[in-house]
Amino acid sequence: MRKVPPAKTGASPKKNDRGKAAEKVRALSARAAFDALFTKGKKISGQFINGRILFDQDAGIQFAVMVSRKAEAKAVNRNRWKRRLREIFRKLTPRLKPGTWVLFQVRQGAGRPEYQALKTDVVMILQQGNAFL
User: Which of 22, 39, 109, 119 has the most CB atoms within 10 Å of its CB?
Assistant: First the structure.
């Protein structure tokens, strides 16, 4: 029988490279948030994905990924896109301005790019949207 380690109490928040507590990233989920991104957000097209960026000083950093069935027919491939984009975004979060809302839409016919090519595309979209500190 395995021993279960005791639960940690009083755990400190994660720190980023600058020694500050990392801002929590929440998933965009409200219909109003998506409507605001589509009407007021800045659209930026990349090679594999389209991005929409909006700044809301009252909210924290929020993020969403959309992969349509037209872009990827199989759920396995749609989930792979989501996992990769979430991981790339998670690593870039400490460099983002507070209150940044980001939506990534996978382009139809984008294929399956390598991780590094996708990361380059995401960084380019965030740079053009002035999302970095």
Answer: 119
pLDDT tens, N- to C-terminus, the chain (133 residues): 555 455 555 444 455 555 454 567 788 778 888 888 899 999 999 999 999 999 987 778 899 999 999 999 999 999 999 999 999 999 999 999 998 999 999 999 888 999 999 999 999 999 999 999 8
User: At 69, which amino acid appears?
Assistant: R
108 CB-side CA count, 13 A: 3
What domains can be seen in the chain, in order of their start residue?
25-128 (3.30.230.10)
Residue 57 DSSP class? T
